[in-house]
Write a structure and sequence with these properties.
By secondary structure, the protein is of the alpha+beta class. It has one domain (8-137). 16% of the residues lie in helices and 43% in strands. The protein is built from two helices and ten strands. It has a ten-stranded antiparallel sheet, with helices on one face. The longest helix has 17 residues, at 121-137. It is globular and about 45 Å long.
Length: 138
């Protein structure tokens, strides 16, 4: 877990993890981590919290759905044991994705103390536009 740093914008949010055993809210911190700052090679979203990386079997490609203040992330394939849905609920997504519903692909990777979610260009552009605007205002 790396915590706050230059180029990491904390996103106030609620995170819910669902799998075949049910749904539960996670105690995590969500950051928008901008490319070129704090060693980020690409812009991505970090979810940092104790043992969150243990919820996922391995790094995987995911589908990303954003509608209003809800971002849903779920794997594109896998066994029944591997299936999950990650919900990140935040009003910030309403500001970032003004055009409404987004469907895209992404990549969920594990790191020590958390996970990261990388996105395709269509989502990246919206995240970067918002993130760099916030940094200029600070």
């Amino acid at each position: 877990m790396t915590g706050p740093g230059p180029g990491k914008i904390k996103i106030p949010s609620k995170v819910v993890f669902c799998n075949k055993k049910g749904c539960r809210e996670l105690d995590v911190v969500v950051y928008l981590h901008l490319k070129g700052l704090s060693r980020a090679r690409v812009t991505h979203i970090d979810l940092e919290g104790d043992k969150i990386e243990d919820l996922f079997c391995s790094d995987t490609y995911v589908r990303v759905s954003v509608s209003g203040g809800l971002m849903r992330i779920y794997p594109t394939r896998g066994t029944q044991e591997d299936m999950f849905e990650l919900r990140i609920i935040s009003d910030v997504f309403r500001k970032i994705f003004k055009e409404g519903k987004i469907l895209s692909w992404g990549f969920l990777g594990k790191k020590e103390g958390g996970i990261y979610i990388g996105f395709k260009k269509d989502v990246l552009e919206s995240l970067e536009r918002y993130g760099f605007k916030i940094l200029k205002e600070q």
